[in-house]
Amino acid sequence: MEGQKNNLRDDFLIFGSPQINDDEINEVFDSLKSGWLGTGPKVKKFEDDFKRYKNIKHTVAVNSCTAALHLSLKALDLNEGDEVITTPMTFCSTVNAIIHTGATPVLADIDPITMNIDPKKIEEKITKKTKCILPVHFAGRSCEMNEIVQISKKNELYIIEDCAHAIETEYHGKKAGTFGDFGCFSFYVTKNLVTGEGGMVITNHKESANRIKRLALHGMSKDAWKRFSDEGYQHYYVEEAGYKYNMMDIQAAIGIHQLKRIEKNWSRRQEIWNYYNDNFSELPITLPSPLEKNTKHAYHLYTILIDENKSGLSRDEFLTIMNSEGIGTGVHYLSIPEHPYYQKQFGWKAEDYPHAMKVGRETVSLPLSPKLSSIDVERVVETVKKILN
Ligand SMILES: Cc1ncc(COP(=O)(O)O)c(C=O)c1O
């Protein structure tokens, strides 16, 4: 990220720039000096720490959330034609992971207020072929998990939670990722916990955890990574055709220290979120809806909606002006059916998912990172006000 700055004006505020402290730098240095760069003791420690943080029985660290989703779906042994219901308001990888297993993704529109998958729409989409519900806790706001769990029980469906935005998220005192069969996390550079690239599967199913671990390293028998350790050479056996999805110690070295600061950083995110809410309340835009009772939002994305009729300029014009003012923004996301591949492959039309379409065409994510100084935050506030007033 810092390297990219060379091509940018000096005061450009990079969207989602990660906060990397000396602890992470020293830990990576330690890995480099030890020569143990690949999967090893630091990955094990990161998995154990994450297990404690999430209060879950099993964790498997992998090299992305996409891998975590793919392997969780693989562990369900889906057959061609089996259907997995997910949201149109997500990153493409949620849908691609389903496609890569041979199953068919089915979209259920969002609730326009929470921007999360609407449980009623899930029910409408259930068929004899439905095997799994894959909710995404969008922006860090928990989905309606009581309703989703009830639907899954009634219809005997698996649940895989896409928690890419939801490391700190809680719903009725329970942590995101622990409601269904698997929770999948992302540690990509812009996420609330960063390892560069990285991901994690969490589950209470021992057999599935072992299988996912095996699939993440070519399908080789358990603890194959130890074969070069001082325990003496151990033969491994390939038990099924797996993937190369394992996390490296260099990545875990960063994650271990990021996890230690996660709640402190969450407080700073909350502070910025509330400051934006207070300062933008009079502007002709839609702010994130108030939090639902008895939930904890991860404050991953602060999204505003720019409706041209109300705001006097289009979303894309707003993005361009913010950029020219030196402030990086994001779009999370154009709804999935806006993309040509899915239109061609599944015949999806954006208009068939009107709430996701509207959000996707109006949404802007503003900088929200513990790395932002008070001066940075003030600059964002003043710039947004100047453009919209
Ligand atoms: C909702 C969602 N799901 C999945 C992913 C994929 O995560 P990764 O980049 O770690 O594969 C992302 C990443 O941005 C995401 O936002």
- H/E series: HHEHEHEHEHEEEEEHHHEEHHHHEH
Count of DSSP-assigned helices: 14
The number of E-state strands comes to 12
Stretches with pLDDT under 50, minimum 5 residues: 1-5
Task: Spell out which ligands are present.
Answer: pyridoxal-5'-phosphate
- Percent of residues in helical segments? 25-40%
Radius of gyration over C-alpha positions, nearest whole angstrom: 21 Å
The helix/strand class is: alpha/beta
Average pLDDT: 95
Widest beta sheet: strand line-up: 1-9-8-5-4-2-3
Biggest sheet descriptor: 7 strands, mixed
Label the overall shape.
Answer: globular
Assembly state (oligomeric): single chain
Query: What proportion of the residues form beta strands (DSSP E)?
Result: 5-15%
N-end to C-end Cα span:
32 Å
